Amino acid sequence: MHKTRCVAHGIQLLLKDIYEEINWVKVATDEARIIVMFMTRYTVLHVVMKEYTKYRQLRQSCATRFASNFLMLQFVLDLDNELRLFVASSEWRRFDYCTIESGTRVTEIIQSDFWARGREVIKTIELLVRVLHLVDGDGSTAGYLYEAMMRAKVAIKERCNSEASKYERIWELFENHRINNIIHPIHVVAAFLNPSYFFSQNFREDREIKDGINFIHENLLLIEEKHQFMREVQLYCSRPSTLFIATPKMMLQTSHPRIWWDYSGDDLPMLKKYAIRILN
Q1: How many domains does the chain fold into?
Q2: Mind giving me the DSSP string for 38-69?
Q3: pLDDT tens-digit profile of 21-79?
Q4: Which domain holds residue 199?
């Protein structure tokens, strides 16, 4: 038995740091919060707003779940046209509190380039939120986490248009949390033992993969299992044709990796034993 970290909590902490330390992310998110707080503060105003949004609601963020900052921003962005029409309407101007400082500020935000900046934030953070949904759902996702995090890192750079000033600090935060709060060596081995990833063009046998296998070798195996385990790891790496007869090959894209091992791992009994345990 070996305990791993709570991945969902680690991703929440990463999203917290991105919000607090990346200024262009914080500014757009805070502007969305200003809109939501003002629109929901006054009952009559809120009722009229819902008529413009066809009763689609804005959502407050949650103080302890930092992904909710970005979900709140997404809810606001989804009502782009409706909120623009509302603050340009005669109904909006009739409310006295729309002329006070906070109301004027909301009008300025909604009529500014906030929408483009907000969409840039969502586009950049989107895959991280998807990874959070992956690990926060039902079922075992250990075999998918490592690859999902690698794809999220690449996407962050691409969606920042490779502008170093925008993505480099996010990458620093990403790597710090990935190593210290999110990815455990067991997750790396789970990716290695996920055949749909291992046999894909995206797979790279890097130092993390080797360190993960060494972690399993040193911490989870019985002494009498070590030699056979490493021999079977080498055989698996050689991609033997016996593992890829028609049915197991088809299962690569259609089944959970644990089921694949349960069905097709008889040639690698020791590796199969630990693959099923880790992927569960």
Answers
A1: 2
A2: HHHHSHHHHHHHHHHTTTPPP---BTTBTHHH
A3: 999 999 999 999 999 999 999 999 999 999 999 989 888 877 557 788 899 999 999 99
A4: 185-279
Residue written as tokens 């069905």? 263
Contact between residue 180 and residue 151 where contact means Cβ atoms under 8 Å apart: no
Which of 163, 182, 201 corresponds to the end of one domain?
Answer: 182
Q: Give the residue carrying structure tokens 């088809």.
A: 250
Exposure on the CB side of residue 239, measured as CA atoms within 13 A: 9
pLDDT confidence of residue 1: 53
Residue 270: both structure tokens together: 């020791």
DSSP 162: T
Asked whether residue 119 falls in the same domain as residue 57, the answer is yes
Q: Per residue in 240-276, is it b (16+ CB within 10 Å) or e — as a string?
A: eeebeeeebeebbeebbbbebbeebbeebebbbbbbb
Query: Which residues of the chain fall below pLDDT 50?
Result: none
Phi and psi at residue 227, to the nearest 5° = -65, -50
Instruction: Quote the DSSP letter at residue 114.
Output: H
pLDDT, residue 86, reads: 95
Predicted confidence at residue 250, as pLDDT, reads 65
User: What residue has token string 């993960």?
Assistant: 212
Confidence (pTM)? 0.89
Contact 45, 100 (CB under 8 A): no
In a domain, 1, yes or no: no
- For 131-155, letters b (16+ CB in 10 Å) and e give bbebbeeeeebbbbbbbbbbebbeb
Is 24 in the same domain as 158? yes
96 membership: H or E segment, kind and range: none
Q: Any bridge partners for residue 248, and if so which?
A: none
Q: Does residue 143 lie in a domain region?
A: yes
Of 124, 113, 133, 106, the C-alpha closest to 25 is 124
Q: At 253, is the secondary structure helix, strand, or coil? A: coil
What is the per-residue pLDDT for 245?
61
**Residues 155 and 190 both lie in one domain:** no
